[in-house]
Amino acid sequence: MPVTLHGSCHCGEVNYTVESNTPVPYQMCSCSICRMTGGFMGNVNIMANTNTLKVTKGEDKISKYVAHKDGKKVNSTRNFCSNCSSMLWLHDPSWDAWGAHIFPSSSIPPET
Q1: What span, in angstroms and rounded, lies between the C-alpha atoms of 75 and 25?
Q2: pLDDT at 58 over 90
Q3: What mean pLDDT do residues 73-99 have?
Q4: What 3 state SS string does 9-73 have?
C-alpha cells in the first residue's frame, strides 16, 4: 500500500507530495553524474509513483537539469529549487510509472 510523502526544498519555496510503495532510501548511486550533482558519495533515492507527484507550492521555482554523458544528453531530468538549489527529484520517462526518484533530503521538513 503506498505511503504519501510530503517534501520541500530547504528554503520552503517548493512543496510537493508523492506516493511511494518503498518510502525508504533504497538506492545509492555513485555514477559520475550523481557524484558531481550530489557530492563525493553520490545520491540516495526513494522510488516514487510518477503519476502521483504533485507540486503544491512553487512550481515556478523549479529548475531542471539534464546531464550529458559521453557527449549525449541522458534521459533523466534533475529537478531542483532555483532559489536554494535543493535537489528535489529525478525523473526518467523510460522508467515508466516509477520514473520519479525522490532525493530523501527533500522529504525532510526544513527547520522552522
Answers
A1: 22
A2: yes
A3: 88
A4: CCCCCCEEEEEECCCCCCEEECCHHHHHHHCCCCEEEEEECHHHCEEEECHHHEEEECCEECCEE
Residue type (1 letter), 59: E
Would you give the DSSP letter of residue 76? Answer: -
Place of cell 538549489: 85
- Residue 112's pLDDT band, with cuts at 50, 70 and 90, is very low
10: left (phi over 0), alpha (psi -120 to 50) or beta: alpha
Nearby residues of 75 by Cβ (< 8 Å), 6 or more positions away: 92, 93, 94
